[in-house]
Fold this sequence. Notes:
Elements lengths: L3 E4 L1 H9 L2 H11 L7 E4 L6 E6 L2 E8 L4 E9 H4 L4
Amino acid sequence: MNYRINIKKKAQKFIDKQNEKQQKRIYKAIYKLPYIGDIKKMRDRENTYRLRVGEYRIIFEWIDNEIIINVTDANNRGDIYKNY
């Protein structure tokens, strides 16, 4: 199935700050979306999910009718949910 993944600037900036090994791990998990990974729907947020990659969390929107995945945020487990 074809779909598009957009990584927003905020998430990209966080990923770029990680060491090369962690970057590869995060990108590998993102590009397996939307069906593979430790994914949970976020409460009270339509079309918003989180992907767990070890100690990191990736927040993304899954717009099914267009098959677009917008990675909106990435951060450490303790910090990611403060804005949500």
